[in-house]
Write a structure and sequence with these properties.
43% helix, Transketolase_bac-like (chains A, B), five-stranded parallel sheet, six-stranded parallel sheet, Transketolase_fam (chains A, B), alpha/beta, Rossmann fold, metal ion binding (chains A, B), homodimer
Chain lengths: 668, 668
Amino acid sequence: MPDYTRMANAIRILAVDSILNAGDGHPGTPLGAADIVTTLYTRHMKFDAADPTWPDRDRFIQSNGHGSMLIYAANHLSGFAKLSIEELKRFRQLNSHCPGHPEYDPEAGIETTTGPLGQGIANAVGMAVAEEKLRAMFGPEICNHYTYALVGDGCLMEGIAQEVVELAGHLKLGHLVFLFDSNHITDDGETYQAISEDQAARFRVAGWHTVECGGHDPDSIDAAIRLAKADPRPSFVICHTEIGHGVPRIANTRSAHGGKLVPEDADEARALLEWEHAPFVIPEDVLKPWREAGRRGNASRVAWQKRLEAADPERKAEFERLVLGKLPEGYEAVLADRKAAYAEARPTQPGVATSGEILDALSDAIPELVSGAPDLEAATRHKRRLEAFTAENRNGRYLHYGVREFAMGSMMNGMAAHRGVIPFGITFLVFSDYERHAIRMAALMGLPVIFGFSHDSIGIGRNGPTHQPVEYLASLRAIPNLTVFRPADAVEAVECWELALANRTGPSAMVYSRQPIPAVRAEAGAENACALGAYVLAAASGKRRATLFATGSEVQIALAARETLEAQGVPTAVVSVPCWERFEQQEPAYRAEVIGRGTARVAVEAAVGLGWERFIGEDGSFIGMSTFGASAPEDELFEHFGITPEAVVGSVLRALDTGSTATAELAG
Amino acid sequence: MPDYTRMANAIRILAVDSILNAGDGHPGTPLGAADIVTTLYTRHMKFDAADPTWPDRDRFIQSNGHGSMLIYAANHLSGFAKLSIEELKRFRQLNSHCPGHPEYDPEAGIETTTGPLGQGIANAVGMAVAEEKLRAMFGPEICNHYTYALVGDGCLMEGIAQEVVELAGHLKLGHLVFLFDSNHITDDGETYQAISEDQAARFRVAGWHTVECGGHDPDSIDAAIRLAKADPRPSFVICHTEIGHGVPRIANTRSAHGGKLVPEDADEARALLEWEHAPFVIPEDVLKPWREAGRRGNASRVAWQKRLEAADPERKAEFERLVLGKLPEGYEAVLADRKAAYAEARPTQPGVATSGEILDALSDAIPELVSGAPDLEAATRHKRRLEAFTAENRNGRYLHYGVREFAMGSMMNGMAAHRGVIPFGITFLVFSDYERHAIRMAALMGLPVIFGFSHDSIGIGRNGPTHQPVEYLASLRAIPNLTVFRPADAVEAVECWELALANRTGPSAMVYSRQPIPAVRAEAGAENACALGAYVLAAASGKRRATLFATGSEVQIALAARETLEAQGVPTAVVSVPCWERFEQQEPAYRAEVIGRGTARVAVEAAVGLGWERFIGEDGSFIGMSTFGASAPEDELFEHFGITPEAVVGSVLRALDTGSTATAELAG
């Protein structure tokens, strides 16, 4: 039997040396949880470091990502090629595979980006859902693995933790195991300052199996994990540990969390742990069992591969398509049909109703599409004929998240990172704030999650300012690598869906009106006009003197204003701007042509104007919001806030009169 | 004894008629929880509708704000003058005191804005903290009241609920009572779809007292509230109710949540409830006991007023100052001293360290200042010599929130709405997303909460992109009525604090660097330069040819670039822009002078460029971020992302060469 404690000490020493080498880092977790991870990797985890992305591998998420040297050291020791000893020496250096916090890199055994607390375990719950889903679709011979997440006190205090703990218990995700690094210390010091709950009791109330173990005793940890795997409920394994274990100066103190190490700490750790080797030198007696652990899933993988080869070819091909993230044949035709139907029917209907119809059609075409709306099934119209995914029915494709937006966002990230399902989740735009950090994480990781948002402006009317987004379009547009779509009608909505599905390197936000909006697109051929981000929807009848920019429900206002202006002899173009990010990517010449410098430029959007100057320039006018909304019928609100064709016309005429639209009061 | 059920039915009928009159609304809660609120108002709540803002009143928060007709009807019936029967008829109309969701209006008995679920109860927990704090400061004869919050299934599913439930239990907030309208129905239908927890057990684990009662039985509710008040722990009163009680068609169905009512519903309710009166007519036998309930706190209030009058005059004056929200004499002098000291010493230090020093000084000068940092006490340097507010020590002024940012934000809103304390809370800027919706609510309510944020850019270095804000300045600037400050040095930091404290009609965000930043202000007289929002920090030596805009840690970069440009014969001004919102409020002439059209304009900020066009125009250059950051030492990152004096100089020279800075690639 290998000396597990000595193997764990290899993690400890690597962590201490790497942190000293980098200048800073968080030593407490790698020191405290080294035994947990060593036991997990050597005696339970089904993985093969030689094939890190094998689809049926067990997933391990270090949710307390600040202690990143733990996973880097463990993955180096177990033989992930990307995490060579040279990379460990480059911990926290530019372009290292060992950045300050773990960053999504399945090739390196990093299943998700962690650091912002609570989200790693939420991702894990999403992964466990994806695993159940694929198991239901393909059978346990193709998909049958566990998701393990290491979690600290900090993660458990975040509200999102409760959201996903409740959901995991409710959904009886039996292949999910949380390993709680319970050391009673956070950055502020002893946890009694901020928490007095019995965590085991809390998890039991939520329907989890719980078990406790000595977190520095490999056999005790092993026994607890065995019990966890055997139980049909999700399991919460409480590992009693000492933070900073192995470095006497900081052990069991708050300094261990993120405090600086000094060279003497390494000496004292070496003395205490009887480790005689130089920094970054791992003796063969330790490396060998670690490398064996790194291949412990090899036999399973080979057997799995055989089962997959032996499977029905269609089933095999379908599984491979899913895990590669390829869309099925035929989905484009479904979208093309929808587009043609909308172009023909020219419906006036709520943007969110259109989105629901598109999702209906896509759900038939894309079996891996999984959707949900946190307690807004009816309002967002996105459940329809989908069955619910429940503890009893893993074939369901609609998740009842409950009123838990952040859980939804972060679970979707976990599903996308797991691969095999395409998550879509929709809520009111005003609640995107609740899941906002999950959107950021999807963008940072480059995950193809589609975040839907309805009820996108004062157009919701009487529910009032608490439910009326004003600042949200700007704040979503501010997130790098997030593509924000706000379609103006049903045809644009189909085009935007097509672009969102094609976007495999980052998330998309789909923003819809609640109120009915008319068809605005006259032409709807094979070309995807929205791909340009902004395009001339209605050209000026002569030499263009005015350019009106609008998105979503305000495009109709721009079109109405154009009619008036044209009637008054002002050749006016209307530019629909469904997607700023895509427009930024176009050639300068195209952008210049669309933007029309030298014309009177007015933008209209029922939101704050932040950023619109890039379309209208310093002398243009913005017609929109500069305050929060109000509770009143929606038509009255557009009048009240002056978002009307008359206001647009007035701005243009003043601009042409004075040579500039001088009142460019951009708000927000 | 009044007929409590008939009194409750008055709420039901008013709600049904008002919702029918408005065209929509959420009937389920007013119908289902009418008995709870009637019992609370008539037999427990200490309030006087004739003096709605009496400081020692009990607070009632309807956290499930969608059912707003409940609180409007109850407050109308109990005699709040602002909520006349005419206002109820204007439910959901423009400028009504009865908007779709309850909006903060203490004169109308609306203690906080609710609707976004989970935050009402979080506000309540903040109010209970403020009550404990004031009781400790002034004694129970001056402050001694309860906070009651009505809460539904939806609120309890939100993560923030768990955060504040844990904290309230931990802090033993005995004057806090949650009344759970437990009807097992949400918008999606029966709650079993999304939750299977025993809520009572969950609260007990968190240290709460729990008790159950029949939610349509006034005596049962009364008995439960009595037990709740008698218990030294916060209490969770589970009231078993039927949603939509009284309207047969929708009772106990999801349609009750927010579905449309039809006129027949009113007829059927009248028949069932034996209510014979026309819409908006309340018979005297019902109105009289309701109006008596509305004055049931009158005797207490008169007695309280006498105690206050009899109190030590200084203590009385101090209490009155606090509840009026007036700052104490002398605080300006403390700030002036700090400013003079910084101007003299010209320290190079982290922005967040400066903020900690300022808070230290202010904490001595402003006894009602209550601060906290969610498990970032050391990193944000804001605890220092303050004692912790704990279950045992209500004199403490530092709240250990634990890793619960959203709880902090929303509790601060509750404290500010309660009045008597000035809340300040700080976390890393990247975690402002977690509390973002609380910031929005503070802005919407116009509450003077000060939200602190440190670690404000890639300047944090090695912790990497998960902890490096990039999109946050833009997304905070997008929020109406939020004033965002990003000071460039210690002198500016003092000035910004002065402005934030003076801002009584909305929240302020204070954004600080983690890395040391040098002093940039040469002059620091009595005038507050930051009050202008943007000002010429370093004038051009001759006729200005270039204008450099910067904020925070990037001002030093602009100054360095200016030196080079001046040396090369390009007269260059540096404009420091600590606060966009204040700059927008300046006179056009001043703004034009600062902005310097016609000069080569470059803005530099280590963040996305969204919105900077309003300073630099379409032809200006922005030097900043267009992607997420990276993990590396901070100096390397500024080089790596090209945020350097050299880049600024290059942009200016190219612009002067070509007549425009053509590469205005604004990202984000």
